[in-house]
Specification:
Shape: globular
CATH class of the largest domain: Alpha Beta
Bound molecules: S-adenosylmethionine
Number of helices: 14
Number of domains: 2
Strand order of the largest sheet: 5-4-3-6-7-9-8
Radius of gyration: 22 Å
Helix content: 40-55%
Structural class: alpha/beta
Largest sheet: 7 strands, mixed
CATH superfamily of the largest domain: Vaccinia Virus protein VP39
CATH architecture of the largest domain: 3-Layer(aba) Sandwich
Distance between the termini: 46 Å
CATH topology of the largest domain: Rossmann fold
Length: 333
């Protein structure tokens, strides 16, 4: 990728034209090329027939997928390389389908950015099937960071934790796996909890998970908990909504209990991915009514206003955790 900031016209053109590769990959996923090809090698002509597509177009598509390293070539035929076989083929146990679908969907939504900038109305994806698919996507996205966070977060002597807007419960389940005395709840909408229950059911530690269907703003917090884990929730809401939520959560934490907030924060430090955090705010512009990304200082200030003390940033080991590995921790006053 072109180094930033953009200073020359050449760099500007490179960035502007960079949509070609995402366009290529998204199209290959939409045509389900990697599943169709499976473990066989294909000439473009035979694959074109299988995909009900045009010979010339498929030849150009395969040539490009070979150039970017996703296919190998054998004579005039092409086969799928190891990455495609493992993660991009629907028949593989490691297929990242829901998450890839979500990214492809976003690629289409970004094309509507001009309309949204003029008249911000979130793109609707709130029917039950979309919510379930989104929740599976969150699970696929969070599995690795959840293990890394659970390995580093201090939850010694914590007996109850609420995963607020916990969706698939990926984090709650990893905390339960690590801490045999812990009980955890997930508080989210019913459609998301359907997915969480499916994930938890075959797991032994899943028996210590409870699901609480409700709305974060219109329903009461489902009990009191030593720790409130709030991961990837703050960016969906406005500053006022976040303060309303923090205040409500505070009243459901016994004195000395904690709130832990994981998100993509704007950090005033070199090495932090400001670009990613800012671009994510655009995703929120497209999909949420009032979401945004916030600075860590701002979130810490809200926590103080809402009755928490000593807010501070915990930094996970480099390259681990979600986003830049920053978690804000504060104690209930
Ligand atoms: C971006 S996902 C984060 C999931 C999980 N915490 C993680 O970090 O992977 C946000 C979650 O908040 C839930 N959510 C959003 N608004 C909500 C509301 N008003 N009431 C209850 N849940 C809500 C969504 O259903 C979704 O599961």
């Amino acid at each position: 990728m072109t180094p930033l900031p953009i200073r020359t016209m050449e760099q500007f053109k490179d960035v502007l034209y960079a949509f070609r590769l995402p366009g290529l990959l998204a199209t290959a996923l939409e045509l389900d090329v990697f599943t169709h090809m499976g473990k066989r090698v294909w000439t473009p002509k035979v694959l074109a027939r299988a995909l009900e597509a045009n010979d010339r177009a498929v030849e150009i598509l395969l040539r490009n997928l070979h150039t970017v390293g996703l296919l190998f070539k054998q004579g005039a035929a092409y086969g799928v390389g190891p990455l495609g076989r493992t993660y991009l083929n629907r028949n593989s146990p490691d297929y990242q389908g829901a998450y890839l679908d979500l990214i492809v969907q976003q690629w289409q939504s970004w094309a509507q950015l001009k309309t949204v900038i003029r008249d911000p109305k979130p793109i609707e994806n709130s029917d039950p099937a979309s919510r379930r698919s989104f929740t599976w996507a969150m699970h696929q996205r969070s599995l690795k960071p959840a293990r890394e966070v659970a390995a580093q977060l201090n939850l010694k002597n914590v007996t109850s934790l609420l995963d607020v807007g916990g969706g698939p419960g990926t984090y709650a389940l990893e905390f339960l796996r690590k801490h045999p005395k812990l009980h955890a709840g997930i508080w989210d909408r019913a459609d998301a909890l359907d997915v969480a229950q499916q994930i938890a059911e075959p797991l032994r530690h899943g028996a210590r998970l409870s699901c609480h269907a409700g709305d974060l703003f219109n329903d009461p917090v489902p009990g009191t908990f030593d720790v409130m884990w709030v991961s990837n929730v703050v960016h969906m809401f406005s500053p006022v909504e976040n303060r309303t939520l923090f205040y409500k959560l505070r009243r459901a934490i016994p004195p000395g209990g904690r709130i832990l907030i994981q998100d993509t924060f704007l950090m005033n430090r070199p090495g932090f991915n400001v670009l990613e955090t800012n671009l994510f705010a655009i995703t929120m512009l497209l999909y949420s009514r009032a979401g945004n990304t916030y600075s860590a200082q701002e979130v810490q200030r809200w926590l103080t206003i809402c009755g928490f003390r000593q807010p501070r940033c915990l930094q996970l080991k480099k390259g681990t955790g979600d986003w830049d590995g920053v978690i804000i921790e504060a104690t209930r006053r």
